[in-house]
Structure formats: structure tokens, C-alpha cells
Design goal:
The protein is α+β, with helices and mostly antiparallel strands. The protein has one domain. The chain is built from 4 helices and 5 strands, in the order βββαααββα. The protein has helices at about 45-55, 60-75, 85-95, 115-125, and strands spanning about 5-15, 25-35, 40-45, 100-105, 110. It starts with 5 loop residues before the first strand and ends in a 5-residue tail after the last helix.
């Protein structure tokens, strides 16, 4: 019997060091599957790329906001007031458009048998810089 496929939504998290310039660094991926109750994110702050786009800018607040995304996805006390929302509602909150130094791409859809593996593959393809 074939493995059932999950339909999921995902968005790429972008760090925008100087909003007025429109330049960004892909820094994470958020994956949501409503039917599986799945919401996970992986993030990685690339300090060298950030410094290249915004020399002299302190990345502390941006790094902290970026690192809060997996906690919001996980829910519980680490999600703060968002812990009361369902996983899908937290996803919708995370991907809502904003004009700030942390933005997300439009939401895309995919299908896979393993959601955690899909998150890993998207992260490797969209965030990691091939070395």
C-alpha cells in the first residue's frame, strides 16, 4: 500500500536588514499541515551575510525575533499569548504580511509522505548556502 501524502503549506522566513533597500536573506522555513496538526520551523541566522548587507547594524533584536519562530510553532508557554491559538492560527499569524526586518515569502503548497523530511529539504534548498 502506498504511503499517504500530506498536503502542506510553507513559507520562507526572510531577514530584511534595511527595509528601505528591499534586500533580504533567507533565514528559515515554516511548514504547516492542518490535517496532521503539524507546525514546525527551522531558522538559522547567518551573521556574515547580515553584516554584508547592513554593516554596523546590531543584529540582536532581529536574531531574537527569528529565534522566537520555532517556539511560536511549538506552542506552549514559549509561544507567549499565541499559545492559545491552534497550530493553523499560529501559522496564519506568522505568515501575515508585515513591513519589518523579519518578513515571510508568499505561502506555497507541497505534498509529501514525511513532513519533517519536507521541512529539512526545504531548509537545505532555500536557506543553506552551498559551500
Amino acid at each position: 500500500m502506498p504511503t499517504p501524502l500530506h498536503t502542506y503549506d510553507y513559507a520562507i522566513v526572510r531577514v530584511v536588514p534595511r527595509v528601505e533597500r528591499g534586500e533580504f536573506i533567507n533565514a528559515g522555513v515554516i511548514v504547516s499541515c492542518k490535517t496532521a496538526g503539524y507546525l514546525q520551523a527551522r531558522v538559522e541566522f547567518d551573521a556574515a551575510r547580515f553584516a554584508a548587507l547592513a554593516p554596523g547594524v546590531d543584529p540582536h533584536d532581529i536574531r531574537a525575533a527569528l529565534e522566537s519562530i520555532p517556539a511560536i510553532c511549538a506552542g506552549g508557554d514559549g509561544a507567549g499569548p499565541l499559545r492559545h491559538l491552534s497550530p493553523r492560527e499560529r501559522f496564519d499569524w506568522l505568515v501575515a504580511p508585515r513591513s519589518s526586518s523579519l518578513q515571510v515569502s508568499p505561502v506555497h503548497t507541497g505534498r509529501c509522505p514525511d513532513l519533517a523530511l519536507a521541512l529539512d529539504k526545504l531548509f537545505d534548498r532555500m536557506v543553506r548556502v552551498a559551500g
